[in-house]
Design brief:
By secondary structure, the chain is α/β, with parallel strands linked by helices. It has one domain: Rossmann fold, CATH 3.40.50. The protein has helices at about 30-35, 110-115, 140-150, 165-175, 185-195, 210-220, 240-255; strands at about 5-10, 20-25, 65-80, 80-95, 100-105, 125-130, 130-135, 150-155, 225-230, 260-265, 275-280, 285. Bound molecules: adenosine-5'-triphosphate.
């Protein structure tokens, strides 16, 4: 099992002692993570292999382009005029990357993320998801593609409050059409992967914000999506819980071969990204 530690280091941009880095594990304390009181957990993420003994560990094919975005614009009709929100976005996301979109409120990050996940369509431009032209697919085809290949995580954890962590994750498998014979093993595997092996039967109100967000991650990866899109996943969390979520993200990139694209306002987590796109007024700046 692997644990990631958050370390305070001096930011390159300022004298703020705020930036964080993650270090590999020193020793195994899985039980401590699961049994710690909310808010007192160590920053950790389990590294539960998704393969059976004897299986060949799947490797991330970094040569595969997951998203290719070309000259994307998005205009919204507002009060008789057009609000030009995205103004020519170009980006590429490769398999196994953790890509972050940063920018001020209103700069267009969520608008772009919605399009990367096929929830919205560009007014102009192209978005290819694993070579498929998202911008040309019908609503029905985009719905199927989202259900099978994309996972979403939001700032507000989007869990059903009356269901346990286990039931929340199971529900996403049910909705994705995964055969019921696979639910038990996969739900257990995903909750262990996010460090909640001993909190599987807690309901959301019995969990900390960080734990709820980790249930949301388990839920989003349960159907084995290729791409995980996360909109401000750490915005409601304190820095320690935010670091736990980032450690889980780093972990699942390797164990689940998932690619992650997320938005953030938080400069302290940017250093774990493979690539950061900075958005200003609907455009990326260098
Ligand atoms: N459906 C819509 N109709 C009209 N305007 C919209 C629509 N969706 C987004 N906008 C506008 O587009 C701009 C960018 O919004 P967006 O939510 O993408 O920004 P953001 O960078 O994600 O901000 P935040 O960090 O606050 O979430 C805002 O001015 C917003 O009001």
């Amino acid at each position: 099992m692997m644990r990631w530690f958050r370390k305070t280091v001096k930011s390159e941009q300022s004298d703020d002692v705020s930036a964080i880095s993650y270090e590999p594990p020193q020793e195994d304390h899985h039980d401590q993570l699961d049994e710690a009181e909310p808010g007192q957990e160590e920053i950790a993420a389990t590294n539960v292999s998704t393969t059976e003994p004897g299986d060949i560990e799947k490797s991330v094919d970094s040569s595969e382009t997951i998203l290719s975005v070309r000259e994307v614009h998005r205009m919204f009709p507002v009060g008789g005029t057009e609000l030009h929100v995205l103004k020519g976005i170009n980006m590429e996301v490769r398999s196994g990357q953790l890509v972050m979109l940063k920018g001020r409120s209103g700069s267009g990050k969520t608008t772009l993320l919605n399009m990367l996940g096929g929830l919205d369509q560009p007014s102009k431009g192209e978005i290819l998801f694993c070579g498929q032209p998202l911008h040309q697919l019908s609503d029905d085809k985009r719905t199927i593609l989202r259900r099978d290949q994309i996972g979403f995580i939001f700032q507000a954890y989007a869990l059903l409050p009356l269901l346990s962590a286990w039931e929340n994750v199971e529900l996403s498998l049910r909705m994705a059409g995964v055969p019921s014979s696979q639910w038990k093993e996969r739900v257990t595997q995903c909750l262990e992967l996010v460090g909640l092996g001993k909190r599987m039967f807690h309901r959301p109100f019995e969990m900390s914000g960080g734990e709820q967000q980790r249930v949301a991650i388990a839920k989003a990866i349960a159907h084995r999506p290729k791409l995980l899109l996360a909109d401000e996943p750490t915005a409601n969390l304190d820095s320690q819980m935010g670091a736990q979520v980032m450690a889980v993200f780093k972990n699942i990139i390797h164990t689940e071969q998932v690619t992650i694209c997320m938005t953030t306002h938080d400069p302290t987590i940017l250093e774990v990204a493979d690539h950061v796109y900075e958005m200003v007024d609907g455009k990326f700046i260098e």
